[in-house]
């Protein structure tokens, strides 16, 4: 796992967990010191976060945390589910080429290997995210519908809409690994539907797949709420 991936995952997690306030400036040097990294991977991560709609650049080029609501995230994830459902249906109905079958099988095998680790490490999370992105990209690329592909690209610019943006990286509890195992089983079922040419089933599975992201979002917000309730108590005790 590259240092940039580590930095990106950590910054994304901090934004979701509420450690940065909306509108707060993210200074490269301060972040680099906090993360124990140089400014280069931090700068690259901020560029990615801007593309994902989590930060925005002001008129001076400084990055600020973008304000977003839970409803915005829920809607964006739902839209991605419907778009990817359409893509999966097209692939199944067109017939899945042998080369694509091989590529998808290799990706699934990699996911199986990664999820065999218990507990998951930060490296496992990052590698699974790459695998997950690759699985979704292969299906989208194979659908042959450029308008649909552009629609997904536009939607991916909304907060936590991309395929791997809502992986359960807000903690290392056993429940996180359980969600990932469940999501990966869905990958296998979707692959089976694609091979069988079952367009309606493939569409349904791809759409349903985003429910895992929805559940992760609710879990993350619950954790955030619990943290916000604890912090005032800590300040009272310390004060």
TrEMBL record:
InterPro entries: GntR_C, TF_FadR/GntR_C, Tscrpt_reg_HTH_GntR, WH-like_DNA-bd_sf, WH_DNA-bd_sf
A GO MF label: DNA binding
Signal peptide segment: none
SUPFAM superfamilies assigned to the protein according to its UniProt record, in alphabetical order: GntR ligand-binding domain-like (SSF48008), Winged helix' DNA-binding domain (SSF46785)
Domain of life, source organism: Bacteria
Keywords annotated in UniProt: DNA-binding, Transcription, Transcription regulation
Gene3D superfamilies recorded: GntR ligand-binding domain-like, Winged helix-like DNA-binding domain superfamily/Winged helix DNA-binding domain
The name this protein goes by in its record: Transcriptional regulator, GntR family
Entries under PANTHER family matching the protein: HTH-TYPE TRANSCRIPTIONAL REGULATOR LGOR-RELATED, TRANSCRIPTIONAL REGULATOR, GNTR FAMILY
Coiled-coil spans in chain: none
Pfam families: FCD, GntR
Domain HTH gntR-type: 1-68
Gene: sadR
């Amino acid at each position: 796992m590259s240092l940039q991936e580590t930095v990106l995952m950590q910054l994304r997690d901090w934004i979701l967990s509420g450690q940065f306030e909306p509108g707060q400036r993210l200074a490269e040097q301060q972040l680099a010191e906090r993360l124990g990294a140089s400014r280069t991977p931090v700068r690259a991560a901020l560029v990615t976060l801007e593309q994902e709609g989590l930060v925005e650049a002001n008129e001076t080029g400084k990055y600020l945390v973008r304000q977003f609501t839970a409803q915005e995230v829920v809607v964006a994830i739902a839209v991605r589910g419907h778009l990817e459902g359409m893509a999966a249906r097209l692939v199944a109905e067109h017939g899945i080429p042998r080369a694509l079958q091989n590529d998808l099988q290799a990706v699934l095998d990699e996911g199986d290997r990664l999820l065999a680790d218990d507990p998951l490490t930060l490296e496992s999370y990052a590698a699974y995210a790459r695998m997950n992105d690759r699985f979704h990209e292969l299906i989208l690329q194979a659908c042959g519908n450029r308008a649909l592909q552009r629609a997904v690209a536009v939607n991916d610019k909304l907060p936590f809409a991309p395929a791997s943006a809502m992986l359960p990286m807000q903690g290392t509890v056993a429940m996180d690994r359980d969600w990932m195992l469940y999501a990966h089983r869905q990958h296998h079922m979707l692959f089976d539907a694609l091979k069988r040419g079952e367009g309606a089933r493939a569409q349904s599975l791809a759409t349903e797949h985003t429910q895992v992201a929805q559940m992760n979002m609710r879990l993350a917000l619950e954790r955030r709420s619990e943290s916000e309730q604890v912090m005032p108590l800590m300040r009272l005790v310390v004060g």
